């Protein structure tokens, strides 16, 4: 039977101890917990934190279960199992910290395509690892060395006494329940909670969709278990809150909410009704001085692949500089990374909602329909809508996604008959792409109103030797570029192709007589994460040492009849759609979006990052460590910070639920009845 006797340390090391069960629990706990401590250190997390205590309890509970199951195997088999477990956890932890450094998020089993994104650039992925990531192999090395040195003293012992196993099952279960009790206390008791953390540990445990917080609070081993569980047993109802008022009518609302209120009264589905209550009470924005500024003009939205503020350079990129210097330029715009950032950030720009942090949202919910999408708003106004991208469906199912959002026609690289090399990941040319775009736009009469969405590709990683990466390297031979890494120069060479493409578009629209009647909106999908910050900071005019500062990207609204203005308010892609809807005076309900019209009085200058961190003119709140850094004399009270964090969490939470439940198609159908 399992007795907790005093252990002789010398006998423990030489495996002469008779209590093999207790021995194995301790033997597993030490290296697994050591992996967690090293992971915290290499991830710049505080090890002197209550989460470390929680992780230790969880590690012991996991070791209890594994050790009991190992009673049914021989010692030599147990040895192999233990080495495999430690090796697997070490490798998993290294891949997690490496993936977070390379892509900006942690790996989740919810996103199978994440592996594909890394596989395509596998050499760049491993080259991005810092040497100290490999310290996570130390526990594995110690275990292997120990087994080698002690192999002659290991007795090939097997538990054949079924009564022994039966009795130890109840002992194991008892101790497991004790540790689970303390673990539960650590995630529910207020003493162990951070008041500023927007997602409670209990909620995070049930649905670890915020992997940054989940790994910090529970460690990589427990996160892996919770993540796998979440794939098969995800319960969205655990994510909702129950303190939303039934209806808080804004006297300025011009719509009749009678049908919506009746729907709330009769809806039995818990999650759908929480969504009804949240969005009917969401922020309503009224008309402002910018309303209808571009009414009845054409619109071209360009989501630029891997473009950051390096692109704002009059000497190298005159066409983009023209748009920036003559248009509305939002200098504090960010495109926060998440899983599948290109597809997800494109989706957010089209529907004004936050994508799901740890999921390829656009693909996972490609059959969703969004009556309130940018395409449908312009369709309702009588515009001809199209969308185009100069690559294939390899990563994102755009043909289905865009068509379900109302795009009148979607063109990919094959439809446009553009050349590219899939074997070497040589992207198509954005310059050639824009030539085909101009041809398609020439088919519209001047009386036709069109709205088209363009997603470019040439400036995508990798930034090794390639056709477009090398095409304009001669631009960077002067001494001012001596310190630039060759990968940075190749990235900037690719940007030149994109800038040439913008020139093709502008010239084409001018020759067709459409330029004066067309608005062009441009934003970067994410910064070029194939380049390290050490390379990027050589070319950027500001510091990117602070967390997430490298995620700043351009956002420009250009029309030839506006006064050039630089706006300093903080924003992101989630505000693009409601801002455009107001500028074009479209028929829309601002409550359907968690983004807000940037020109409305109700807009709060704030950018929200994928893990719940946020930044504005006054401060940066880091959700990873629940710390706030101030840039001005203004400081927030604890209550103010809790209020902001809850607002941020609700925007993310209800965006995610709306997408998961195809809520807006449900709402549209219900209100039409």
Structure summary:
With 673 residues, this protein is of the alpha/beta class.
Radius of gyration: 28 Å
Q: How many helices does DSSP assign?
A: 24
Distance between the termini: 68 Å
Indicate the overall shape: globular
Q: In percent, how helical is the residue content? A: 40-55%
Domain module tally: 2
- Name of the CATH homologous superfamily of the largest domain: Alkaline Phosphatase, subunit A
Proportion of residues in β-strands: 5-15%
Q: Quote the CATH topology of the largest domain.
A: Alkaline Phosphatase, subunit A
- Class per helix and strand makeup: alpha/beta
Care to describe what's here?
- This protein is an alpha/beta fold.
- It folds into 2 domains: 9-234, no CATH class; 292-383 and 411-595, Alkaline Phosphatase, subunit A, CATH 3.40.720.
- 45% of the residues lie in helices and 9% in strands.
- It has helices spanning 9-13, 20-42, 50-69, 75-102, 113-119, 122-127, 138-150, 162-188, 201-206, 211-233, 258-266, 270-280, 318-326, 341-351, 361-364, 374-380, 398-404, 430-441, 467-471, 486-511, 533-536, 576-583, 638-660, 663-672; strands at residues 298-304, 328-334, 384-389, 410-411, 450-455, 518-524, 555-558, 565-572, 607-608, 614-615, 619-622, 627-630.
- The strands form 2 sheets. Strands 4-3-5-1-6-7-2-8 form an 8-stranded mixed β-sheet. Strands 9-10-11-12 form a 4-stranded antiparallel β-sheet, with no helix packed on it.
- Strand 11 (619-622) and strand 12 form a beta hairpin.
- The longest helix has 28 residues, at 75-102.
- The radius of gyration is 28 Å and the shape is globular.
- The N and C termini lie far apart (68 Å).
- The relative contact order is 0.12.
């Amino acid at each position: 039977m399992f007795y907790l006797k005093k252990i002789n340390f010398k006998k423990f090391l030489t495996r002469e101890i008779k209590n093999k069960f207790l021995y194995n629990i301790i033997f597993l706990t030490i290296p697994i917990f050591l992996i967690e401590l090293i992971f915290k250190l290499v991830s710049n997390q505080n090890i002197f934190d209550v989460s470390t205590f929680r992780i230790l309890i969880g590690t012991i509970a996991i070791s209890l279960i594994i050790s009991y199951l190992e009673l049914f195997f021989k010692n030599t088999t147990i040895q192999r199992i233990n080495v495999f477990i430690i090796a697997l956890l070490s490798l998993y932890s290294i891949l997690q910290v490496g993936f977070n450094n390379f892509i900006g998020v942690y790996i989740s089993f919810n996103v199978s395509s994440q592996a594909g994104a890394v596989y395509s650039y596998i050499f760049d992925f491993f080259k991005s690892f810092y040497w100290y990531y490999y310290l996570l192999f130390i526990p594995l090395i110690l275990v292997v060395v120990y087994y080698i040195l002690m192999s002659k003293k290991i007795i090939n012992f097997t538990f054949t006494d079924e009564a022994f196993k039966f009795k130890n099952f109840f002992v194991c279960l008892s101790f497991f329940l004790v540790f689970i009790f303390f673990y539960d206390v650590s995630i529910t008791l207020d003493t162990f909670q951070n008041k500023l953390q927007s997602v409670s540990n209990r909620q995070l445990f049930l649905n670890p969709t915020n992997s940054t917080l989940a790994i910090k609070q529970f460690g990589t081993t427990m996160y892996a278990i919770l993540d796998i569980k979440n794939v098969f047993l995800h319960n969205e109802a655990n994510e909702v809150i129950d303190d939303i008022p039934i209806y808080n009518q804004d006297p300025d609302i011009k719509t009749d909410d009678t049908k919506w209120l009746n729907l709330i009264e009769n809806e039995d589905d818990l999650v759908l009704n929480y969504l009804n209550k949240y969005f009917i009470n969401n922020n309503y924005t009224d008309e402002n001085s910018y309303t209808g500024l571009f009414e009845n003009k054409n619109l071209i939205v360009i989501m630029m692949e891997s473009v950051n503020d390096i692109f704002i350079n009059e000497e190298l990129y005159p066409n983009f500089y023209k748009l920036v210097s003559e248009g509305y330029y939002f200098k504090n715009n960010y495109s926060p990374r998440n899983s599948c950032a290109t597809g997800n950030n494109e989706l957010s720009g089209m529907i004004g909602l936050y994508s799901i942090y740890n999921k390829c949202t656009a693909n996972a919910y490609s059959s969703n329909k969004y009556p309130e999408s940018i395409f449908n708003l312009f369709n309702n106004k009588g515009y001809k809508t199209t969308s185009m991208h100069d690559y294939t469906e390899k990563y994102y199912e755009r043909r289905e996604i865009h068509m379900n959002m109302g795009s009148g026609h979607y063109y990919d690289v094959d439809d446009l008959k553009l050349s590219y090399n899939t074997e070497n990941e040589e992207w198509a040319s954005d310059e050639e792409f824009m030539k085909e775009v101009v041809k398609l736009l020439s088919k519209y009469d001047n009386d036709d109103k069109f709205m088209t969405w363009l997603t470019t590709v040439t400036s995508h990683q990798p930034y090794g030797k390639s056709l477009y990466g090398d095409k304009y390297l001669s631009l960077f031979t002067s001494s001012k570029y001596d310190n630039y890494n060759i990968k940075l120069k190749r990235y900037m060479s690719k940007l030149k192709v994109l800038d040439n493409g913008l020139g093709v578009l502008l010239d084409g629209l001018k020759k067709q007589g459409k330029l004066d009647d067309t608005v062009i909106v441009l934003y970067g999908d994410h910064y070029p994460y194939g380049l390290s910050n050490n390379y990027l900071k050589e070319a950027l005019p500001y510091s990117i040492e602070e967390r997430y500062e490298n995620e700043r990207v351009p956002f420009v609204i250009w029309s030839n009849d506006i006064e050039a203005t630089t706006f300093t308010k903080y924003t992101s892609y989630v505000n693009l759609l409601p801002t455009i809807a107001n500028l074009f005076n479209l028929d829309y309900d601002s409550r359907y979006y968690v983004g807000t019209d940037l020109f409305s009085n109700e807009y709060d200058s704030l950018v929200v990052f994928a893990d719940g961190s946020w930044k504005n003119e006054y401060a940066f709140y880091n959700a990873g460590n629940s710390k706030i850094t101030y840039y001005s004399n203004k400081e927030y009270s604890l209550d103010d910070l809790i209020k902001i964090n809850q607002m941020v969490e609700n925007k993310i939470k209800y965006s995610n639920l709306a997408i998961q439940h195809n809520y807006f198609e449900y709402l549209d159908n219900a209100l039409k009845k």
